[in-house]
Amino acid sequence: MINVSDITGAAKVLLDAGKLPEYKKLLEASEQLLKLQEELAEKTSQVKTLQAEIDEIRSDQVAGADFTKVRDHYRDNEGNIWCARCWICDKRRGLVVKGVGQKGEMTPQCSRCKQFYFSF
Ligand SMILES: [Zn+2]
Question: What spacing in Å lies between the alpha carbon of 115 and ligand 1's midpoint?
Answer without folding.
Answer: 6
